[in-house]
Design brief:
54% of the residues lie in helices and 8% in strands. The protein is an alpha/beta fold.
Amino acid sequence: MPGFIQWVLGRLRAGWAWLRPLLWHTRVALALGLVAVLAAALWHASIGWLFASLALIALLIVSPGMRLAIWHARVPSTFALVGVLALTVPEQIRQLIAGTEGLLQFAALPLAVLATGAGCWFWGRWSLNLARAGQVLGRPVPEAAWSALPRILALAPALAALIAVWQSGDLLPLWKSLLLTLLVLLAAAALVALAWKRRAYVGGRRAMAAPPHRAARLFLHDEAPRQPPRPPGTLRDWLRLALRCLPFHPALVVMVVAIFLVLALLTMTGSGPLIAVSQALGAAPTALFGLAGLLTLLAPPVGFLAAARRWPVLLILLLWVVGAAGVNLNTAVRTANPAPAARPTLPEAATRWLEACAERQGDTVRVALVAAAGGASRAALWAAAVMRALETADGGPRLDPARHVFAVSGVSGGALGLSAYVAGLDAAGAGCGGTLAEPPAARLDGLQRGLGQDFLSPALAGLFFGDGWWRVLGPVSAAARLLGWTSVERTIWLERSWEAAAGPLARPLVASSFPRPDGPPRLPLLFTSGTHLETGRLVITAPVVGAAPEDQGGAAAPDAVTPAAVPEAIDAVQVLRSDPPFSVAASNSARFPYVTAPGLLQQRGSGAEYGQVVDGGYFDNLGSTAMLAAARALEEAHRALAGRAGSRLAGTRLHVFLVQVWSDPDRVQALGPKGPFAAMVPRCGPQPPPGMKLASPSPLDFLLSPFGALISVRGERANAGAAPIVEAYCGTAPGVQAERHFHVFTMGPAAGGVRAPLNWVLPPHVREAIAAEGLSGFPGMANEANLAALGEAWRAAAAPTAPSGSAPPAPSR
């Protein structure tokens, strides 16, 4: 036994002897890692931000060599910082990590961390090699700082990924959390071997082999003399020196650059399986691979010109990119389809629909209109779930979309959900007043499966490999645009991913809605709402227009932006002179920076430009403006038909049911320490008591408060926009010949208090909560009771003794 103890102690001493120099050489990286972990643990407390800031300040103060090294390796340092912030700061990254599915995505995250870390190390090491060999430092630099910075850059993405996995722990099963941690640690170990052991390992292998040693030629390429007898004098000398300073052989570098170049060309030309590949990898790995590609594009020219010419390269790069920004615009809204021959006005469409499509039961006509709020994928899936419940749920109204639904209005993600719903009706053979050949369950199941796919990864691939390269190329891309070629931008990739998930979205909006311009609408009228960047006005994409020019007392405006179906709005179809696909109608409402770009309203044929369209949530995040316009047009049309002798609807009474779909789980208030929750949204019936959430200022509020205030006001303005609906549609208004009803379905915290993220990709548990049978996935929101109340009011309206108004739904508890 004593011998065994001595053997164990000897092994421990040997292990410590091996570990001690490793800990010493990695002390800076370990210290920064500890700082990052502590800062993340205390992120919600101001002391965490202060601690991390002071630690980094101290590092820069006590190490002038580190300051100089960061300056000479500023491009890879910046990219490493961006990667760290992208993996640790956004709340959505927790949901992205939690949504990791399949073997490929589990492997992709550590591989992306490895690629990003290796890229940061490689170009950091090369930048410092070139600065030293080119004799541009001005003073001696301590070897410790010169060696430490590339190693810190190498490990930074791995440390950030570990923090991201740790922050997602409450959303992950234990096995998934441990597996991701292990895989990221393996990537970190590979980066440690690259940054710390490259020379020792390759040099040792070379010593045991007969020269020339292939591994040394490939992976110790920078072992050439570091400093020539005199500074390079010509550009050719600098180029030769830059090649000698590469840590790896130039052939390997050319191979990596060629891979990224091919990916960029495929993305910018709209070729290749980008959607499938990016969705298979996942959003976070796609973004990290994209950062590595942009780093490979920027680091060589910036580092070379900074060393060889001492130019202010970052300022030059800024001027290069910004100076061409007005010329190399590639964000025009797609206008492939020609303009429709004619579109009816909204009043005409309402009259035709009532005459040909609306179901009459006795002396009653019941009509439903639906508005869906914005919120990316969660809003799209929630809108589809509500439409499913309205059609199929037991106790619900069991709507027939061909006879009961006149119009739907959506914003952002809600616009996508309703666009896919209406396009699916078209694919299923829906007809005015008819019945659908396809069973509702099959159609609606396919709709929810399609909308649950990952739409963020294709958009990020388009951002990093398409728009990122296009913008960085500056005047080169501007010249290409002047010659008639533009890159496929990220919003188009987003639209294509929608079309791949739900094929009917590629169908034209107007032609599908009105096969005959003088006939009734074949589908529920789809309204999507965007915001005009230059004027702040609403931009409506719809298959109808507003009042005819002669009804306005004059000719149409020469700029061709009026009239629109919604008063004071801009008509996107008329401006573009094109019949947009359903996918473009949705994206005209969902262009929220920076995942998507503002859409240039460029007229088909003439090329005239009418400003840009951005996310509709800036103006109306509920879609209520268009829904109210459609409801008023419907009531006016019914009033005329009900009083017209010989009309099919003569003597009938109209029941208008407005359904508002809210998709913001943050608009809830806890009525107790751990619930229950109440939805803070306007609705008929008793309202929950108003309250204020506890909220402490963030460390960056002194800089970002104007933007935070605008974002908050956007949400509150959407809330205020629903107030007129409550006032006008909760029961019958005096002097109105229609019975009015208003019902609300709202998203809230799911079981366990988990809230759906604002993102174009959702983890499985969020998708399951949204798709729960009978809208039961959000306890406390009373959606099941509201659905039953709507069904009861719908059936009561058709009864001979129908009440004058609908019973108000039960308040959310």
